[in-house]
Amino acid sequence: MTKPPRKPAQPLLGDADAPLRSRPRKKRDPAQPNLPFDPMPARVDPCLALLKPKPPKGRQWAFEVKWDGYRIAVHIEPSGVRILTRGGHDWTDRFPAIATEARRLPVSTAILDGEAVVFDELGRSDFGRLQQSLGGRGGNRSSREAVMMAFDLLYFDGHDLMETEFTARRHLLEGLVPAGGEEAVRLSEEIEADGDTLLRIACDHGLEGIIAKDRNSTYRSGCGGDWLKIKCIQSDGFTIVGYQMSGAAFGNIGALLLAARKGDELIYVGSVGTGFKADEAMKLRATMDKIKATKPAVVYSGGRKNLTWIKPKLVAEIEYRAWTHDGKLRHPSYKGLRELQDNATVYELE
Known about the structure:
Blueprint: H1 9-14, E1 50-51, E2 61-65, E3 70-77, E4 80-85, H2 96-104, E5 110-117, H3 127-133, E6 147-156, E7 159-160, H4 166-176, E8 185-187, H5 195-204, E9 209-214, E10 227-231, E11 234-245, E12 253-262, E13 265-272, H6 278-289, E14 307-320, E15 322-323, E16 329-330, E17 333-337
Parallel strand pairs: 1-10, 6-8
Antiparallel strand pairs: 2-9, 3-4, 3-5, 5-6, 6-7, 9-10, 11-12, 11-14, 12-13, 14-17, 15-16
């Protein structure tokens, strides 16, 4: 169940003239010097990628595929394995295949940073399929299909690596999680290509985008600019503030009314009426009907009728092409609800 097809890997890596796979590296020497151990942190706030419209230039930047899933940290300890979400919630039981494979890694203690994903039939990470495998938002199902794409190593054999440059952390990670694996913990490979070329190839293959990382940077929590994300299609979280009733639509949801954040205020940014599946729409409707509100949480002048307002407690992941001149989402499509455990963030308007 944890071995989806790898069809896109070869075309993605073969379209450019230069070889795009990571260069093979020497395996680490197990006879390491006896260095003093560093205390293992119970949790690390993740380093976040800053959204940019174009890939950066220069040899200092390393590039990877952007994965579409849940950010997780896998803690390997003498007492066992813990899998923590971006918000710090323990989801070890939700990802049993990842936990089992992590226990097999040849290391005593480690913290791996990565993304839990589920692949579609073409080998692309699919956020909707990941949510379905977990039983939907708020579900408690375990996902045996989920795979971890590991892209950083924060702690290794008793040593804190967060003040170590990214290139050295990457070197150790590649020795721990070899490239080309088919198990539940896999290496998110560095792809040696020009950023513009890689972004074009990624978009041609229907991927979400790419990530650029400063090779010389240490690991800093938050959005500091050491990591950058460049997307083929924009995708962000928006608060659901209401919905339009429709007898002809799944779950009788004609459209969701969306809001972004501007300081402490919610601003209406349009509606979305596509991307719903029948079973998801029914669950979403039932969830929204439990948090109905008597008045809207935003200033609304959209002109739609048959509206039901809800409390702004749900965050939807929305794909969209651009923004209109009056600050509304252009060609939006619903992808799913973000989990509170995933520390769901709402788009911030400038």
